[in-house]
Amino acid sequence: MSDILENSESQKRQYIDAESVFAEIRRLRQEAAQFRGGMIWREISGHRYLIRTSVKGTHKSLGPESEATARIFQTFTQRKAALADRLASIEKTFEEQRRLNRALRVGRIPPVVVDVLNVLDKAGVSEHFTVVGTHALYAYESACGVRFVPQAMATRDIDLLFDMRRHLAFFSRMKESELSLLGLLRKADKSFERLEDQKETVRNATGFEVDVIRRVAKDGDPHPLRMSDDEDDIWAVQASTGERILNSPRFSQMVVSTTGEMALMNTMHPLDFVDVKRALAKYPNRDPLKRSKDALQAELVATLVRDYMPQYARLGPSGRVDGEPGES
User: Is 150 exposed, middle or buried (0-12, 13-18, 19+ CB in 10 A)?
Assistant: First the structure.
């Protein structure tokens, strides 16, 4: 299909190599995060105690000196040092992969999107968000080593669906980090500002927007919903498709920016994307230009599943693949 173009063999090989390094460095960084802070011995009232220190300066006693606490101290310090060595080594390889990504033009997702995904991941809240809409196409095409036609990809905003089912865990994490969602996004781009007439949207200096959406309130969901206690933070807006997307199996894939940077994108099952886009294309009050793009995107992803990702195909009662192009 002319609307789906194959990447070169060198681009495909480079993506596979980069993905392997990315997965390992991400695993090591997550493990290293558990060893942030340190452990020290402290004399208290004539006895030595093992103290766990945090990066925020808090201290927690793990008990008086004993064989057990000595083992805890030794295991902690040895593992922390080993992780630091492994990270220092793989960081060099990771940077080489980034440069190769850029040189071979492996990625084409806007850098700001990768930066947003990475700050959410580093803060430990990426699992609470699902990328929906046009940017999900980058995950699907990356998984298959192809590229969609430019007219299917044109957009100046990314939609993040917040998972209301786990909102208590999210707010606990945000309170612990002492950051607002807007504050996190400003770590990706310091020019992000919330729009006062659309408080679910932040926009940067180049006009790129991040929209935060949620399912329609149900089962005691808090509503309206501000993403932290900060009065200037983003408010999540209700979306009619939110519940459907939350119930979709998750599809996670490494994406690469035009600068070679990498990030993990969490989005929805490709055939659920097809169903949602086909439904949007039929909404009578949908902008006609958006309806045509919705229909194009649905057909492209359905074709991708049929030709490149048969493992994601679902057979309907007739034995036909659900979401197959041309199906009514």
Answer: exposed
Chain segment 11-58, per-residue pLDDT in tens:
999 999 999 999 999 999 999 988 888 999 999 888 999 999 988 788
The helix-helix angle for 67-103 and 9-33 (nearest 10°) equals 160
CA–CA separation, 147 vs 327, rounded Å?
A: 23
In degrees, to the nearest 5, what angle opens at C-alpha 226 toward C-alphas 230 and 273?
135
**Structure tokens, 166:** 């786990």
Mean pLDDT of the 73-78 span: 93
Q: Cα-flanking dihedrals φ and ψ of residue 213, to 5°? A: -120, 170
Do 18 and 253 meet the contact criterion of CB atoms below 8 Å apart? no
Cα–Cα distance measured from residue 98 to residue 165, given in angstroms and rounded to the nearest whole number: 36
Buried b (16+ CB within 10 A) or exposed e, 92-112: eebeebbebbbebebbebbbb
Nearest partner of 22 among 257, 262, 265, judged by Cα: 262
Show the beta-strand stretches assigned E in the chain.
4-6, 38-44, 47-53, 59-64, 129-132, 146-148, 157-162, 193-195, 198-203, 209-215, 225-226, 235-239, 250-256, 262-268
> Residue 87: is it exposed, middle or buried by C-beta count within 10 angstroms (0-12/13-18/19+)?
middle
Q: How far apart are CA 305 and CA 274, in angstroms?
A: 10
51-54-57-63 Cα dihedral, nearest 10 degrees: -20
For the chain, give the mean pLDDT. Answer: 92
The span from the CA of 279 to the CA of 286, in Å, is: 10
- Burial classification of residue 157, based on how many CB atoms lie within 10 Å of its CB (0-12 exposed, 13-18 middle, 19 or more buried): middle
Q: How far is CA 219 from the centre of its chain?
A: 26
Of 206, 223, 218, 227, nearest in space to 161 by CA? 227
- Report CA torsion sign: 109, 110, 115, 116: negative
